[in-house]
Amino acid sequence: MIGEYTFTGRRAAEIAASVERAVGEGALAPGAALPPLRELAIELGVNPNTVAAAYRLLRDRGVIETAGRRGSRVRPRPATTVHDEIGLEVPSGVRDLSSGNPDIRLLPPLGEALTQAAARHAGKPMLYGHAPVDDELRRLARAVFDADGIPDGPIGLTSGSLDSMERALLAHLRPGDKVAVEDPGWGSLFDLVPAIGLRLIPVGVDDEGPLPPSMDAALKRGVRALIVTDRGQNPTGAAISAARAQELRALLTEHPQALVIDDDHIHGLTELPLHSLTGCTRHWMLVRSTAKAFGPDLRLAVLTGDPVTVDRVCGRYRLGPGWVSHLLQHTVAHLWRTEAVDTPVVSAAYAVRRDGLVQALAERGVAAYGRSSMNVWIPVPDETGAVTRLLQAGWAVAPGARFRLSSPPGIRVTISPISVDEVPILADAVAEAIRPHHTGRFG
């Protein structure tokens, strides 16, 4: 029993369901400690092995985590809780810089692309038994991969970057295997990995991507997979440089058994060159989603990789959803073919705000990071205090806890909604919110 909540069940599955129900209803908050195995076994009148089996089920489902002698606790972001519901509640009248969304003014109009897709559908609708990937989309994707120096490999589609990553991890790893992830990194990925029974191993990050000593340590700990963001890293804006890629690839060649997943989610929104880690291990995958360039509702990601990985990912996709809608595929193909996004213009529009905020904060004695994409990462001594004071000043920013495993505290500011004229006003508010000034690191 914890507080007013009483666990129930005689079998492992029943006990696990009781705990999940408590977490889902909010009776067990993130971080809450669960009863020791023997204590709960006595309370329920069952064998301790039954409770141990229930806790294993909960760990495999990403609901709880085990902290050695400190026992088992509800995960900070349990898989039973929708990730977005843990976010900051933005009061009316407060500017929301916490979402990570693109600037809707920079998204391309979809009318012509959707009209063309509908016309193609009318002439030749997708039916059962047809090829899952549209030929034109395949050719366009392969041509861009070739231009970026990505090794030759088959083309596949899923319903987003995270969907691709989950399927690739499940295709190669087993419950309990370790996955190296960037820290700070993508909060949704931090939720996904434990939810499918895998273990997170943090890798430090700086402006040029994952830190080689940190990655080396992770590889030596036996990680079975590594997930890296090539450009526009969330939340720090890091982008892998040519020199850093060379260092990391040298490390990976010593661990050919590791699955390497490259996330290039801001393809089309940056003029920074791609320096990927693909092809230096036996199994690899590079995935590009359309969410940032064309809008999050276009749920499509193009991937390539070694034949075994792509075949497993696409084969499993066929057993579930079947295929990505050809209406979406034709829409994306049209947008790519017509170059609907003017990359230099869009990249410059984000850069002038992002770089402007980093520079304005530096002038106020505040260290900030944002080499690419639409976010700025600001190390702070006290996340809660900084977020609260900024909220009172009329700005909602994302607390760094969403994006951290063991890295120092910080806040993430999405610059998409602000104008250039607002940059100094926001910089003043941030500097005031985190005084005494703090010049920290994010890796």
Q: In terms of structural class, how would the helical and strand content be classed?
A: alpha/beta
Radius of gyration: 23 Å
Q: Which outline best applies?
A: globular
Instruction: Estimate what percentage of residues fall within beta strands.
Output: 5-15%
How would a crystallographer describe the biggest sheet?
Answer: 8 strands, mixed
Number of strands: 15
Strand order of the largest sheet: 4-11-10-9-8-5-6-7
SSE pattern, N- to C-terminal:
HHHEEEHHEHEHEEHEHEEHEHHHEHEEEH
Verbal overview:
The structure is a single chain. The protein contains 15 helices and 15 strands. Residues 82-86 have low confidence and may be disordered. With 443 residues, the protein is α/β, with parallel strands linked by helices. Helix 1 (12-25) crosses helix 3 (48-60). The strands form four sheets. Strands 4-11-10-9-8-5-6-7 form an eight-stranded mixed beta sheet, sandwiched between helices.
Task: Quickly list its features.
14% strand, 15 helices, alpha/beta, 443 residues
